[in-house]
Amino acid sequence: MRALxxxxxxxxxxxxxxxxxxxxxxxxxxxxxRLLGAVACAGAVAFIxxxxxxxxxxxxxxxxxxxxxxxxxxxxxxxxxxxxxxxGLAVAFALAxxxxxxxxxxxxxx
Length: 110
Hints:
Blueprint: H1 2-22, H2 31-52, H3 63-83, H4 87-107
Helix pairs in contact: 1-2, 1-3, 1-4, 3-4
């Protein structure tokens, strides 16, 4: 069960980064700004995650605050997919993220 939980966690985390990177690509701005937005959005989320939620983070948040951060990041990723006009993928992502969070809480991996 632990391997399933951790495997799903890494997939959901990578999918969240991808969602944040896809969202700016639909902006009505020059291509260079879209690419910059994609890198900046995904990079900002990756930085916050690495600083406060990653297992080896120097300033890892306590469990309750970490759950809130993860839920916020995952919710934002689902909203980014909605903004990118891919509602089906947003729903699938939200379900996968919810499943991962529930499994992680039940197995103590959070």
